[in-house]
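DM from R.C. (forwarded with permission)

"hey, sorry to bug you on a friday — could you get me a structure for this? deadline for the figure draft is monday and I only need the backbone to look sensible"
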Amino acid sequence: MSIIEAVGICKDFGGEALFTNVEFSIEQGDKIGLVGRNGSGKTTLLRILAGLDDDFVGRFRLDPSARIAYVPQKDPSFEPTETVVDFLCRDIAAQRNRLEYLAEEMGDSDVNRAHDAMSEYGRLRERYDALDGDEAED
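My reply, with the result:
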């Protein structure tokens, strides 16, 4: 089964085609490289696959157990001791910390504060679970 399958991906800028009818599949265990001249659409294709660009034609299917992370090529800001996994999981780690904080707030003696914390916790937990937050670093 394919991890990613792209069919008929087309992208243009101002009516000028960047790429047309891109089709590929990536299977479990494949090792791939994306190579091309500057301006050929490598970054744009990756942004489409990561869900950061929805202005394209075609479709792609992503295995539900797969995750795509995207690191911008211009000036990514790494902390001195930060690993690549830490960098890619920053948002998940921040959500996890917020969930822990909200869990404590739900026990607050102020009923309104506890209710607000519970409401936010529910919304955030749904997003966190949809991103498989507990397995993000795996």
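R.C.: lifesaver. Helices lie at 42-49, 84-88, 90-105, 111-130.
me: no worries. The beta strands are 2-13, 16-27, 57-62.
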